[in-house]
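Posting for a labmate who doesn't have an account.
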Amino acid sequence: MPKLWSPSPARCLVIAWHLINSPGASYQELGADWHLRRLNPACRTCNLVS
């Protein structure tokens, strides 16, 4: 079973600070499978080549 990841309170404050100080910024959730997509060798090759 994979270990669940949760952001630290300090990291949440940094994200909030950037969102408050940049009116045009918006937060976009990367998705639950972000790590799997990022570590997929085929996708990694495509990202590095392009």
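Reply:
Got it, the structure tokens are right above this. The two ends are 33 Å apart (CA to CA).
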